[in-house]
Design brief:
With 233 residues, the protein is an alpha/beta fold. The protein has a single domain, classed as Rossmann fold (3-Layer(aba) Sandwich), CATH 3.40.50. Strand 8 and strand 9 form a beta hairpin. The radius of gyration is 17 Å and the shape is globular. The two termini are 25 Å apart. Pfam families: Abhydrolase_2 (PF02230). This is Phospholipase/carboxylesterase. It comes from Arenibacter palladensis. GO terms for molecular function: hydrolase activity.
């Protein structure tokens, strides 16, 4: 394990990772017995696994935290879950074929990580930001048997990325926290505001909050979802 320090104080130990299908960082759980609950982090477009992992030291110690790198490298740096293209004729458009492939890459990774690291496959939380949130929604709504909780930051539900028959799934055990910046200039808040109606129609237990920020996570947003999560794991 690699010790992580801040201002001379030990924050946590970072485990050496296993050679799984997606690159990742891992902070082990503090639990010494039984299978620990796990939180998977999925970063936004152009970022990497180090980004959201900066939250790790502030989250519940009983959680094993795994921050995942998206599979498509970008130039000159960063990674994406799917390409966002800019063309004169089409304008800005998403490569939804790549997104669906990433959805299922995440599903496979969750399964192999739980098995490899001895994690509680019945207590899985997904935390996404932006593009990572869009994929977290797609995974949880397509495969709710794999996911207990979702923290959906600064993203939206894209139904084109969800299995076609997803409305027939059993969502009784799924809980979702949604937040968005009220002045987000990257993903309009109006897109995020559609989520509560969709989740209500699916009878999914959910919370929706807005914060007076742009495309980012304000401190009050962090403490809000942290409090929500502590009651769910």
């Amino acid at each position: 394990m690699v010790p992580i320090f801040k201002n001379g104080s030990l924050l946590y130990l970072r485990m050496t990772t296993a050679p799984l299908s997606l690159e990742h960082l891992i902070r082990p759980s503090s639990l010494t017995e039984g299978k620990p609950p796990v939180l998977f982090m999925f970063h936004g477009y152009g970022s990497n696994e180090e980004d959201l992992f900066s939250f790790a030291s502030e989250l519940p110690k009983e959680l094993c935290i795994i921050s995942v790198r998206a599979p498509y490298p970008m130039q000159p740096y960063g990674n994406a879950w799917y390409a966002i293209n800019f063309e004169a004729e089409k304008g800005k458009w998403n490569n939804e074929e790549e997104a669906v492939l990433s959805r299922d890459k995440i599903k496979v990774f969750i399964e192999e990580a739980c098995k490899t690291y001895g994690l509680d496959e019945k207590n899985v939380t997904l935390l996404g930001f932006s593009q990572g949130t869009i994929l977290s929604y797609a995974v949880a709504l397509s495969y709710p048997e794999l996911v207990k909780n979702v923290i959906a930051l600064s993203g939206y539900i894209n139904e084109n990325l969800i299995l076609k028959n997803y409305r027939e799934n059993n969502f009784k055990d799924l809980k979702i926290y949604v937040s968005h910046g009220s002045v987000d200039q990257v993903i309009p808040v109006a897109w995020a505001q559609q989520a509560p109606g969709i989740l209500k129609n699916l009878n999914i237990d959910h919370v929706y909050e807005e914060f007076p920020v742009g495309h980012g996570v304000a401190p009050q947003n962090f403490y809000s979802f942290k409090t929500w999560l502590q009651d769910k794991i």
